[in-house]
Structure formats: structure tokens, C-alpha cells
User: Fold ATP-dependent 6-phosphofructokinase from Ligilactobacillus ceti DSM 22408.
Amino acid sequence: MKRIAVLTSGGDSSGMNAAVRAVSRAGMSAGLEVYGINYGYKGLVEGDIVQLEPLDLDGRIASGGTFLHSARFPEFAEESVQLKGIEQLKRHGIEALVVIGGDGSYHGALKLTKHGFNSIGIPGTIDNDIPGTDFTIGFDTAVNCATEALDRINDTARSHQRTFIVEVMGRGAGDIALWSGIACGADAIIIPERDYDIQEIADIIVRNKEHGKEHSLIVIAEGVMSADDFKRQLDEHGDFDSRAITLGHIQRGGRPTAKDRVLASLFGDYAVKLLLEGKGGLAIGIHNNELEAHDIIDTLENHKHHTDVALQDLNNRLRF
Assistant:
């Protein structure tokens, strides 16, 4: 093997640049030429492919976003478009591709694998919703960002004796809500993986007030509903002087945490190691602090991400 390529796709997450750096530096250390594909699968099909040099990677480990950029490209679901992408890779003499991204990005790598092109997926998404791994690149940074914002909002809630409902990202998974909610001492955490009882939550707020706590904080995952919609439901059960806030895209950007930088470095280096061993068609992950690689077809078609809903029980035991 002489040439490999790397792309980032889907929503950006802090640590993607660190993963691109790791793939590239590990490949160069092994004597490979490494190419970057700009704008994800769109750039792949259009041939926006450039060779990466060591200087291109300087300082990237600390920067958020993705310097290779990303673009939505639903056309890649079509077989004819996938084959055009493979033609571009072969035209550049590229023998394997590393894809960094979330669920949609993985499905692109899955399609290439089914066509016989050697592809490896690295989980890069704040949502932490990829099967085959305990954690994805960007999740820790997003949780830290959400936690800081929740702490600030809690200060205002306490100052004005209000109830704040804060919507965090996560797509269809409740991981960001769970981790940030526990970290800030939320009074209730609402996630897609479990039903909720609006009356029970109203009762929690009332009980807080009866015991002298005049403010409350509710964290809701975007996969359940919007903060505004939840506020309307809650207001039907009492006057809690409630406010709804959506944190939005601030959770996706910013300098990656040390944990995300290290995780990205481990994943990128491991991906190159597997390719040098002649292995492909794999999805990389980490489980019980050990790196793992699973068949990407089996991982996506037969497995689902499992949110640790027991964390919600933990929060319920520890709240006021």
C-alpha cells in the first residue's frame, strides 16, 4: 500500500482535526502518501483531493471544526454516484479510505465497502450515537460545553427563582443530556430512550419549593421535543415562571478537550495500523478503554447504540 485518503463528513465535531492529523501523521510515519478529501463525499465525487504535507497538520490537534470541511451530500445514496467516487479514488492511486463522521458518514463507508473498496470508519460526532463504541470524537467536548452553559443558566435560575428548561443536542440519543444533566445537578433529565411523566416533573418542582429550593433546572434532549414545546406542556400543570432555552450549535465547535484529542489520536493511529495489516471494511471503537474494530457491515446493519439510561436513575437518586 502506498496511498491512503481521509475525509470528514456530516456534522462537525471537535476533535475531527485531531483525527485527520493522527491518520495523516501515522500514515506518513509508515512511508505512505496521505491525501485529504475536501467537503466529504461531495468532494470525493468531484475529485477535490489534495496530498497532505506535514505542515498542513501543524496545530490542527487543538482546533475545532474540520479543516477538510464537510458538506451534506444525499446523492451519495445512489449507486452510480458511489461508483464515481471510487473512480476518483482509483484515478488518484488511492488504495484505502478513512472516513471520520457520524451515522450518515458511516453508511457512506458501508456503501464503499460493499463495492469492495477498502474503507475504515472512525466515529466522529457529538451525539455519541454510533454502535460499536462507548464514546465518539467530539462527545466529551460537547458535554463540557453544555455543562458550562447549564451552570451559568442555573446561576440565573437561582437568582430569579425560576424554572429553566434547556434543550441540548444529540439527535436521537440522550447521551449529551444525561452526562451534562448529571454534571450540573439537574432536577430532571428528559431523554428519547425513556418515557416521561409531565405531572411527575411538575411535582418535583413543587416539592423543591416546599423544601426551600425556589429554582429548578430541566435538561431535555432535542430528540424528545423542543424546549419551547416542553415548556408549553409544563405550564399546563402550574405557574413555575419557566423559561425555555436552546443551546444549539455552540455545542459542536470550539477547542477539543484533552480527552477528545487523545481519543482522536488513538483512533487515527489504529486505523492506519489496521490498513497496513491489510484489513478494511471496519468500524473503529473503544470499549472498556480498549480499542476495537468491528465489521462495518455487521455493525451498522445488526447493532444499535445503547444509551446508559441507568444514568438517569443515578440523577434521580442524587437530585434535591
User: Anything to note?
Assistant: The longest strand covers residues 3-8. The chain has a mean pLDDT of 97. The chain has two domains: 3-138+256-302, 140-252. Residues 140-252 form a domain with the Rossmann fold fold (CATH 3.40.50.460).
